Amino acid sequence: MRSTMVSLLFPVGILLVFLSFCLSTTSAAIVETSFHVKNLTTSRLCQNHVIVAANGSLPGPTLRVQEGDSLIVHVFNESPYNLTIHWHGVFQMRTQWADGPEFITQCPIRPGNSYTYRFNLTGQVGTLWWHAHTQWLRATVYGALVIRPRDGQKYPFVKPYREETILLGEWWNANVIDVENAALATGVAPNNSDAYTINGWPGDLYPSCPSNKTYTLQVVPGKTYLLRIINAALNGQLFFKIANHNFTVVGADAAYTNPFQTDVVVMGPGQTTDVLLTANQSPGLYYMAARPYASAVGVVINNSTTTAILAYENATQTTPVLPILPALNDTPTAFRFESNMTALVTSPFWSPVPQTVDENMYVTMGLGISECGNNQTCGGIFGQRMAASMNNHSFVLPSTISMLEAFFRNVSGIYTTDFPNQPPIVFDYTNTSNSFNQTLMTTPKLTSVKQLKFNSTVQLVFQNTALVGIENHPMHLHGMNFYILAQGFGNYDPINDPRKFNLVNPQERNTIGVPTGGWAAIRFRANNPGVWFIHCHLDVHLPWGLATAFVVENGGTPESTLPPPPADFPRC
Question: What is the pTM (predicted TM-score) of this model?
């Protein structure tokens, strides 16, 4: 429930100061709610399964706030598993303990316990989301976080007739924790999902069990709608279309973009896209549809299609029109969509790109193998465990204390700060003849991070490799947005490729799909002290080690210093 009062502390009688403060915080409020996360028996694909869900729904609750509001969420873990909640894309300035990734910024909320997340939403308008950040629980524990302009401010585009949230998800006819644990036990890839979903439902096209609860969006002819599309799938990068309709992209990851027209949206897990849709076709029924963008060659995937229905008012037809989706491996379409976005520099939240770089990083990323272990049998390549790495460091989470608490209390032995700025071995990174070079594939397991000075500017080039196989990796940075300067295919050329950098109006995001067999250059300012996870948002790759973290030092002022943890902070 949205609070109707802003709590203010002010000296009695100083009326002018009070009025001035009120004017400067117009519309700011405290929004408070609770999540009860527990087992739920639900049916999909004509099968009943017990899942973990927030407040008895899949997806979980949509949180709606205005820019400048403070959000308080009491999370009660009534499930049988450890739990954390991550507020994907929220900066968490001065509230670093609320970011949520397990053993990065907090220890998990144990079954039967609770934790209250408190944070402010200033400087961001658009669509973010929240999800569990413990093992694979986010397959069913997730929901939207909608941030509207504060009172007196408007969208920089035509006011929509209505807003709708479209959450793309993934469904297993199994316990997802069991699926993950079974794969990790033997070092193999996990079983694929059985369906994709739109707002929790697979849709009509699954032959084993056509859905009788397909999500339907009712529209009025001639009206324009703002669709907030979120890819909450665990491992599926997705194409999304609505038959016979076009979109105008106006935002991504809660940052305004210059409007551009498209008939398809491409999103990796973790990404959000805001689009305007005008109901300008003949009144009827039209399928929304999503299916995978499969960038990896020769990998077996769930290649099914999930659907929902766009229904015009007073439509008389009974069979919806199905859109023609891109081919599963349509990398040119995916690249064109990702690279066409530019930032709306007239946004009140836009900051110019830093022109001076303090830290230059060139980071290879991809799959590999790690040692099976003594007296164990593994099913990965060469009889080893499947792994993943950045600059040949395969990340391992600590287990006794969170990295943020270790940073705050100066506890040694939890992580090392020796993550390299360059790959340890130089080779032809995207040459597929190297895909199964066992020497190049083998990676050590480390809890290795990069330490940064407060307010330093970091330029990082992600370099995809062909080890095991080339594929697009959606890389997500916690705690800060970054500018996407350029993207391309093949090996990054440090002499010629910087000439392609957009330093004027590059898109601003928290998650980027690094092109398959290619590279992406990003830049950001490390203006948020704490420990910030950076990782692949394909959850199959996260426990394999495709991650590291940035430890941003304190800045020397109270505002730039990590505050102490809250009183109810979970203990390990």
Answer: 0.94
